[in-house]
Write a structure and sequence with these properties.
By secondary structure, this protein is mainly α. It contains nine helices and no strands.
């Protein structure tokens, strides 16, 4: 049964990456009109797919993409690099530090501030100069072939918006304030549709901390 779940995890991860790539390829080559309402819907769709890349890398950090450690790492490296030029090993160490020291001074995801100061602290903790250089180089190379408005609207903007999506639903909302459990986490009310579209079920955050080896696509089953 566990092998079947890990195989499914691999195909789920590939499906997310494939959907992200296909959608981005179409959007970057789309001769769109600003008056077309689909433009603004597709920004949100692409934002959600960017978030899916990070969630896929997150699953890899918990070893749930594949039982093969090499495949698991390759998928994790690929997903998080495509997301925004991040390095998997760095995020891996920080994410497990979050799980081991949640809601303490040693938790890299926690800051005792309001939303904006916490978000800024969160981003400064993860964004590096090397990553910014990688993204700047990628942008300037891509704009040789791709219309700059497409790049800004369907690559840059959705990736930035997804950082708010990930931070708000995956860090700020579940970890703000005080909690009466050992994981210092709250959880969304049970509504699987809302939980999926907001952050791939990671609004069920207490459940994630209780069962971190549960992949995102199985996390809804842990919700009572």
């Amino acid at each position: 049964m566990k092998t079947a779940i890990k195989l499914t995890g691999f195909f789920v991860a590939l499906s997310v990456i494939f959907c992200w790539f296909c959608c981005l390829f179409f959007l970057l080559n789309w001769d769109f009109s600003w008056s077309n309402p689909l433009v603004y819907l597709m920004i949100l769709v692409q934002m959600h797919l960017f978030t899916g890349l990070f969630i896929t890398a997150h699953d890899a950090m918990h070893g749930t993409v594949s039982s093969n450690k090499i495949i698991n790492k390759v998928v994790g490296y690929t997903a998080v690099f495509l997301y925004a030029g991040f390095f998997y090993n760095t995020l891996f160490k920080k994410h497990h530090k979050h799980h081991n020291h949640v809601h303490t001074n040693d938790d890299p995801d926690f800051a005792p501030h309001g939303f904006w100061k916490w978000y800024l602290s969160f981003m400064l903790n993860y964004v590096t100069i090397i990553q910014l250089i990688i993204m700047a180089v990628a942008y300037n190379v891509l704009k040789i072939w791709i219309d700059e408005r497409n790049l800004l609207l369907f690559w840059v903007l959705p990736s930035l918006l997804s950082t708010f999506q990930l931070f708000y639903f995956g860090t700020y909302l579940p970890h703000k304030g005080e909690h009466d459990n050992e994981y210092h986490s709250s959880t969304l009310n049970k509504n699987h549709f809302i939980a999926f579209i907001t952050c791939y079920f990671f609004g069920y955050h207490l459940e994630h901390h209780q069962k971190p080896a549960t992949p995102w696509w199985q996390l809804y089953k842990t919700k009572n």
